[in-house]
Model the fold of this input.
Amino acid sequence: MFKNQIKYELIGFYENYNNSGRIKLKLTNSDSLICCYIDDIKFISKYLSELDNRYISQLVQSRR
Done:
């Protein structure tokens, strides 16, 4: 049996979410919508496209 890997697409982000100073990402696929902090991106980066991963790393660089 083959296991399909679900791919998510970045559709938006929130800066300074709840005055926490952190970025919260909004990701979607055909079935669901998830939100996560940018700090957790290392856990979900394998589910994102290369283009989205590059954009998120640029976001991280601009925040430093």
